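Dear colleague,

Following up on yesterday's call, I've attached the two folding results inline so they're easy to grep. Please treat them as preliminary; we haven't cross-checked anything against experimental data yet. The first protein's sequence and structure tokens come first.
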Amino acid sequence: MALSSRHLLQLEGTSKEDLDLILDTSVGFREILDRPIKKVPPLRGKTVVNLFYENSTRTRISFELAEKRLSADTINFSTSTSSVKKGETLRDTVRNIEAMKIDMVVVRHGSTGVPYYLTQCLDANIINAGDGTHEHPTQGLLDIFTIRQKYNKIKGLRVLLVGDIRHSRVARSNIWGLKTLGASVAVCGPTTLLPYEAEKFGIDVYTNLDEAMEGVDVVNILRIQLERQKAGLFPSQREYSNLFGITRERLKRLNKNFTIMHPGPMNRGIEITNKVADGPASVILEQVTNGQAVRMAVLYLLSNVDAHEDKAIE
């Protein structure tokens, strides 16, 4: 079993076959996480570098645990203690790291396109852990896996993404992955937080949350990036909460057996109330656990791709 590409850079353009393979493989690794001994040997002898140029808690820890549970040797790179502080370029940094005979690189960077750039510099497998406002493919995959785990399908479901769609790489990965697998996707948020000409994504676009929630199976609530509020993208946190906050009252508009998701970190009391976040329909903590299984699957599958057949999506 192997993916058609040596790298995982984005879900846009990723085939249904590759998505299904990752999701199906994740099922087996999810079962491993429930065992007393959670370590297996598929990546023994492989060295993986976690190259994080942005702060991260969940994604970084999740990847590190996934690597260790696959028996890989793991190296964590931090810009604050590296030669980047001395002016070293990204290209020189990664070429020097590769000279130490590494096999895979998991990269998070604030600039869109850095993971693709690394595929042009290195022979290692590259996994995008989030680049700029472009994509966050493993987050999209773990969200989709969590939905499939509950409903045993993706096709035919109605999924609503609520919040800061404009700046969200998670939203883009969810949109592309869900659409490829046959879900109906909608987004909702203030006009200032929606992408320009969002309809061109092939999705439904709403600015009224009550209308958007009618007939929805899954609501994936995206973080309001408070650091961007200074740009005046919405008047106040209170107004945002009144218009776009997910409350128990609003849940009545959803289909029966609905699901509440959030990639985290949450701004409780703004985009989601405590009763919704901790309610029986919430699978937020399951998303975190499932993230390890999905990342184990991605690492395992990429390690089986022939290093001489680079079919990365450009």
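Below is the second protein, in the same order (sequence, then structure):
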Amino acid sequence: MFRRSQLDTPQAIRRSAMDLLARREHSYNELLRKLVLRGATNDAADIELGKLQDEGLLSDARFCEAYVYARSQRGIGPMRLREELRQKGVASTLVEQVLSEPHWDWPALGAQAFAKRFPEGVAVELKERARQQRFMQYRGFDWHELDIDAAG
């Protein structure tokens, strides 16, 4: 029988949170959910996470930037990233701020993802072009912003 570990002291909650943060960045809400699942009370976890934020060890901004970078390198676009980050509890203003930073060239990243998946270029047949558009939409890119029609 599986038994959840009890995070009944502030030290245990902090240690568990630090273990999770050592592996990768987490959003505040994501970390709170994981700590509660591991046996911490919502209030106690909230207090400890507040301390970690004050110390600069937990940052939604840092999480958001790292998440966007990692996922964009795998061919994921801004529309999908926006939804994924919303589900992880990141504030929409922060998400918009990170996604609109000038170093993100979303049309170029979309064109890269398109070229990797469809090296033959933009399809001539409507059925195949619709399939390509659905793929790009699933990836989180707006077909009309990509400028791949001219490249194909």
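For the second protein, one point worth flagging: Residues 6 and 39 are 5 Å apart (CA to CA).

Best wishes,
A.L.
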